[in-house]
Design a protein that fits this description.
Blueprint (H helix, E strand, L loop, with lengths): L2 E7 L4 E7 L3 E5 L6 H10 L2 E6 L11 H8 L2 E5 L9 E3 L4 E5 L2 E7 L8 E7 L2 E8 L18 H18 L5 E4 L21 H7 L1 H4 L2 H11 L7 H10 L14 H9 L3 E4 L3 H6 L6 E2 L6 H8 L6 E5 L2 H12 L8 E4 L17 E2 L1 H12 L18 E5 L3 H6 L1 E2 L3 E2 L5 H4 L7 E5 L4 H12 L4 E4 L4 H5 L4 E2 L5 E2 L1 H8 L5 E5 L3 H6 L6 E2 L2 H5 L12 E5 L4 H12 L4 E4 L2 H7 L16
Parallel strand pairs: 3-4, 4-5, 5-6, 10-11, 12-13, 12-14, 14-15, 16-21, 17-19, 17-20, 20-21, 23-27, 24-25, 24-26, 26-27
Antiparallel strand pairs: 1-2, 2-3, 7-8, 8-9, 9-10, 18-22
Length: about 575
Amino acid sequence: MFFVDTIETAGLGNRGYLAGGEHHAVAVDPPRDIDRVVAAAARRGVRIALVVETHVHNDYVTGGLHLARLTGAAHLVPAAAGVTFPHVPVHDGDRTAVDTGLTLRALATPGHTPHHTAYVLEDGGTAVAAFTGGSLLIGTVGRPDLVEPRLTERLARAQHASAHRLAAELPDTTALLPTHGFGSFCASARAGGPGGPATIGAEKTRNEALTKDVDTFVAGLLAGLDDTPAYYTHMGPLNAAGPAPVDLTPPAPADADEIAARLAAGEWVVDLRSRVAFADGHVAGAFNFEAGGQLATYLAWLIPWGRPVTLLAESPAQLAAAQRELVRVGIDRPAAAATGAPADWVRPGEPLRSFPRATFTDLAAARESASRHRPAHAADGTPAQAPRPIVVLDVRRDAERAVGHIEGSLHIPLHLLRRRAAEIPGGTVWVHCAGGMRAAIAASLLDAEGRDVVAVDDTFDAAARAGLPLTRTACARVTADQAHRRTGPDGDAVLIDVRESAEWRAGHAPGAVHAPLSRLLTGGGLPAPLHDRDLVVICRSGQRSQRAALLLAARGARAVDVEGGMRAWAGAGLPVVDDHGNDGSIA
């Protein structure tokens, strides 16, 4: 008999596992706060004999090294992972005993990372569970663009092959137990858990990695990639070097004077209370990241890495829970903290700040009111006070914006807001997202700069019901012949090729500018001389170019895409060259 317990980290969309038999167990991809894993083993009455990592994680700090040292367990890490701490290197096909009759078999499954390894739990020689990490997820796969943009397409193809290997080598009844995909940004698409048990057999009928050919799958995968949190850059190196144990003791207490001093020094003061409570009254200059939301993801994404942070919480319990979340993404020790209420956090005589919350119905009414004719003079003959202009700010990501947005709204994704705040014109800023949490963060950032803000605390579905005019970011499509005329010597546009490097080298249109979609999605831009030019976007078959054109349009560019891509271009007999100027092939 065997057991599998799930160690869930909902805020990051991840799961670790404890699996074993009567006496011994293995911990798979453990979170950094390992006390949860130790407690699970104690409840089972087993000793943790093995700790295994499927890959060097990019989205959280592993607890594997500390757990192995604490328990004396062998620490298994893929041999090619490049970690610098003592470990047991794992190769494809390695088998390791877990308990009587239970064995762990390693399967090389590159794609999410080049060294990615899945582990199959075998009971009496029969595969019963597959710990697939970031390879085969429930309904999707792990994204292949987190290691190096130039490897993205190659890893996407490896991801397809790895999914097929798992499907071919494992029985349909094998339980599928991924680490990522339950809201994690490591998933390449929306993923989650089905109503019943997830199995290899179920994935064969619904997972595009197993239902589509490799070219179609890769094109769709690359077209669907979205931005990743900035803090991911720091997770891989931290995990490869070996994270230190966590310290969850309470931070040093901060009084009102210290809070003011830290704000004056440019440090971050983060209010963990609900967005409702924060809007009603808060310390001037503080930012609002709700403890009950995706605190770790968004705070780590937005805060300059290494900047000291002071936490304000309504209770010691709320503070302790936030500390636990933050150590999982490498924010180890708050500089200071305070609990209580806003009145306790300001010096005598200092006023609290506040701003209104509203719905999309309120926004529609405000826009309607602002559009009505205003008299030039009040009743007493004095000049009438002109209403403040209304600025509608959409802080959703590019992919969300492309589905539909409020006409006339300004788009700055939340993770870019501090960098681009100067682009917001004067007036009252009504800020919205898809559900209210990100809008609250954005409103707090703008409020800290002294802007007049209204936080729209509503679901975006309500915008249409409120009568607000919506539009979809649309990009026209052109034929290959039209693209050739527009980007030729007499044309007015530049051809942007968004395929990956291997495709580009095999053959591209003369004069095209190479800007891989994977680079655009990770924040890369176009050369400055192209910023005011019309853009014609091309890929292999026309799928990725649609995504790229929408992305560029959302950033303010004038972009169209080529229907049929380079296949249609070559099929029309238009010129194709390789990197050396020779006639190329785009097979």
